[in-house]
Amino acid sequence: QINPFNKPTEIDKQLLDGVISQGDRVVDATCGNGHDTEYLANRVGDQGLVYAFDIQKQALETTWKRLQQEGLHERVRLLNKGHEKLIEDVEGPVSCVMFNLGYLPGSDKKVVTEPQNTIRAIEGALSLLKAGGLLTIVLYPGHETGMIESQVVQDYLMRLDQTKFHTKKIISLNFKNNPPYLMAVLKNK
Ligand code: SAM
């Protein structure tokens, strides 16, 4: 069930529940502390495969520990690599790609996703997505780079060909301090 009043990091999973099947290949483009990777690994089952990218070793280590504790590590391929290069490693078609932009929670916030890399990654992700597949992006306009990145991503998604893709934005209108929000892209069947 999809509740648009939940947090964006919950709504993305509610949307994906209806898209991911057991045995699918899927991508976590920003694995961070591994919450999304863990969710994806549970959804694809033991015959599925999750590709999870992050440029910070600390993030991959935290994620690996989390997956091992849950017995999910065998269905995940962790890549210490920028998501802008994801097409080099991911074998498509994939049923979903998750992006959760910004910085690693609990870190020094110096390493953040960069607009140019994010767009390159989205471009690659859309080319790998199967028909009926979904790309989700949680954006953080509350900090300066995040605000710029959110606008760049929106401009890019607004220009996608509507005969091929359907894009959505789910945002709280009256919250202070530019809270996070969600964008999603469905690849048409
Ligand atoms: N999805 C994560 C979770 O569930 O815990 C949270 C992700 S966190 C908000 C954003 C992550 O993106 C950080 O860990 C950061 O290192 C990573 N990142 C920054 N630039 C990246 C890039 N070019 N490619 C892949 N990951 C990147």
Question: Which outline best applies?
Answer: globular
Number of domains: 1
CATH architecture: 3-Layer(aba) Sandwich
Estimate what percentage of residues fall within beta strands. Answer: 15-25%
Q: With helices defined by DSSP (H or I, 4 residues minimum), what is the helix count?
A: 5
Helix % is 25-40%
CATH fold-level topology: Rossmann fold
Averaged pLDDT:
97
* CATH domain class name: Alpha Beta
Uncertain ranges = none
Overview of the molecule:
This protein has helices spanning 8-17, 35-44, 57-69, 115-128, 144-158, and strands at residues 25-28, 49-54, 76-80, 94-100, 129-139, 165-170, 181-187. With 189 residues, the chain is an alpha/beta fold. It is globular and about 40 Å long. The relative contact order is 0.16. Bound molecules: S-adenosylmethionine.
Note the main attributes of this structure.
189 residues, alpha/beta, 7-stranded mixed beta sheet, 5 helices, 33% helix, globular, binds S-adenosylmethionine, transferase, methyltransferase activity, methyltransferase, Putative rRNA methylase, MnmM_MeTrfase
